[in-house]
Each structure stands twice: as structure tokens, then as C-alpha cells.
Amino acid sequence: MTSEEYLTTKEVAAMLRVSDQTIRSYVKRGMIPAIKFGTSRRSTVRIPKSGLDQFLASMQGSAVEVEEDPQNRNTPDDFYIGDVPEEEE
User: Could you tell me which CATH number the domain at 6-59 has?
Assistant: First the structure.
């Protein structure tokens, strides 16, 4: 029999650099499989490593890439607030 490794929601959150609440939300929506110990709303939850691996595999390629603005419309000058001093000749 193989021994499955289990992770806490905090461990998974740290690995993915998201909040613990985000991981709990993923578990609640069924995106990440988990085992719940107890019947209360905030019962202990453990996530099997194999379930996390499946989740990550399913998410691969779904990240949104942001392209740089080709016309460079957003420059620091666009965000200046206040009076702009006039140039002297």
C-alpha cells in the first residue's frame, strides 16, 4: 500500500502564493479535491498531493498573458496630477 502525502490549506496557499481563503474556495467549488475531518463549517481540511497535482495540470495553459501596450499609451506623464510648468525658451 502506498502512503499518500496530505497538505494543509495553508501549505497549498503558500506553494501557490495565494491566500488560505482562496484555497478553501477552490475546495468548496470542487476544483481541488480534499478530505474534510469533522462536520463543522470550519473543520480541518487536508488536500492530497495527487489532487493538487491534478488541479495544477488542469490549470496549465489557462493563465492570461498581458501583452505590453504596442502604442505605449500609458506613460508616467499620463498620470501626472497638477500644474505642469511651462518650458522657458
Answer: 1.10.10
pLDDT, averaged across the chain: 78
| Contact status, residue 50 vs residue 34, Cβ threshold 8 Å | no
Pure H helices in the chain:
9-16, 20-28, 49-59
- The span from the CA of 86 to the CA of 66, in Å, is 36
| Vertex 8 angle, CA 17 and 65, to 5° | 25
CB 53, CB 5: distance < 8 Å: no
pLDDT at 7 over 90: yes
Mean pLDDT of 1-5: 76
Q: Quick one: how far is CA 27 from the chain centroid?
A: 13
pTM of structure: 0.62
Whose grid coordinates read 495553508?
10
Task: Write b or e for each residue in 33-43: b if 16 or more Cβ atoms lie within 10 A of its Cβ, otherwise e.
Answer: ebeeeeeeeee
